[in-house]
């Protein structure tokens, strides 16, 4: 499943924790606070659990699962985003 995560985190130390979680699950940065990955349902559930354990009162994290059909309808203007496909994930 294709998943976008956007966040606004007040403190740098907590931002580093959230980024570490996202990178652990194979998320790639699109913009400063927008990340993307293609992960399965179990990984998504585990990632959301870890995020909930680390979120603070002033933080905002949005998780957007996108179906394959909707993802294929996306329009890209400007430079096309190309992601390096990871051959493996470290858990």
What's the layout of helices and strands?
Elements: E1 2-8, H1 12-24, E2 28-31, E3 34-38, H2 41-54, E4 60-66, H3 68-72
Antiparallel strand pairs: 1-3, 1-4, 2-3
Helix pairs in contact: 1-2
Defining traits:
single chain, 91 residues, alpha+beta, four-stranded antiparallel beta sheet, 3 helices, 25% strand
Cα(first) to Cα(last) distance is 19 Å
H/E order of the elements?
EHEEHEH
Largest beta-sheet details = 4 strands, antiparallel
Q: Low-confidence segments, ≥5 residues, pLDDT <50?
A: none
User: What's the mean pLDDT score?
Assistant: 87
Shape: globular
The SS-based structural class is alpha+beta
Helix fraction by DSSP (H/I, runs of at least 4): 25-40%
Strand order within the widest beta sheet? 2-3-1-4
Number of helical segments with 4 or more residues: 3
What does the radius of gyration come to?
13 Å
Percent in strands: 25-35%
Number of strands: 4
């Amino acid at each position: 499943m294709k998943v976008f995560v956007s966040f606004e985190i007040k403190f740098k130390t907590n931002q580093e924790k959230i980024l570490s979680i996202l990178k652990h699950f194979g998320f790639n940065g699109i913009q400063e606070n927008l990340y993307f990955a293609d992960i399965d349902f179990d990984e998504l559930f585990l990632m959301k659990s870890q995020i909930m354990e680390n979120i603070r009162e002033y933080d905002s994290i949005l998780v957007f699962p996108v179906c394959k059909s909707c993802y294929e309808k996306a329009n890209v203007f400007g430079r096309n985003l190309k992601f390096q496909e990871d051959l493996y994930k470290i858990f």
